[in-house]
């Protein structure tokens, strides 16, 4: 958790379908502050939950355009996070005094 753990944890929460219960258990055994954990898990889960709900609803209603927009948002977010990972990590380190 000291080097890139917070950013990696947030990224794992963003992945739809990732076993988040197991992740929470593992993170609970680390030295991460509770407030930081609650912030990253809430933000990460909220985004994924909204996108998965929109995608699932659009598939059920045969709204292909909405589905592809949601899927595109997922891909664009993942791509931007990957491309700007260095800046994001620097921002997190600066913010948390690491």
Task: Describe this structure as you would to a colleague.
By secondary structure, this protein is mainly α. It has one domain. The chain has 5 helices and no strands. Helix 1 (5-14) runs parallel beside helix 3 (34-60) and helix 3 (34-60) packs antiparallel against helix 4 (64-83). The radius of gyration is 15 Å and the shape is globular. It starts with a helix and ends with a helix. The mean pLDDT is 80.
Short summary:
It contains 5 helices and no strands. The chain is mainly alpha-helical.
* SS field, number of helical segments: 5
User: Mean pLDDT across all residues, rounded?
Assistant: 80
What gyration radius follows from the Cα positions, in whole Å? 15 Å
Contiguous uncertain segments of 5+ residues: none
Order of helices and strands: HHHHH
| Number of DSSP E strands | 0
Main beta sheet: strand number and arrangement? none
Which of globular, elongated, flat, extended, rod-shaped describes the shape?
globular
Keywords:
98 residues, mainly alpha, single chain, 5 helices, globular, 79% helix
List the helices and strands and how they pair.
Blueprint lengths: L4 H10 L5 H9 L5 H27 L3 H20 L1 H11 L3
């Amino acid at each position: 958790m000291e080097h890139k753990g917070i950013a990696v944890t947030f990224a794992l929460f963003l992945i739809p379908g990732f076993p988040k219960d197991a992740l929470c258990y593992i993170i609970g055994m680390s030295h991460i502050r509770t407030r930081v954990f609650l912030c990253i898990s809430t933000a990460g889960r909220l985004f994924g939950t909204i996108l998965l709900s929109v995608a699932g609803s659009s598939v059920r209603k045969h709204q292909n355009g909405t589905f592809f927009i949601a899927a595109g948002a997922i891909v664009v977010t993942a791509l931007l996070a990957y491309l700007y990972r260095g800046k994001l990590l620097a921002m997190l380190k600066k913010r948390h005094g690491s």
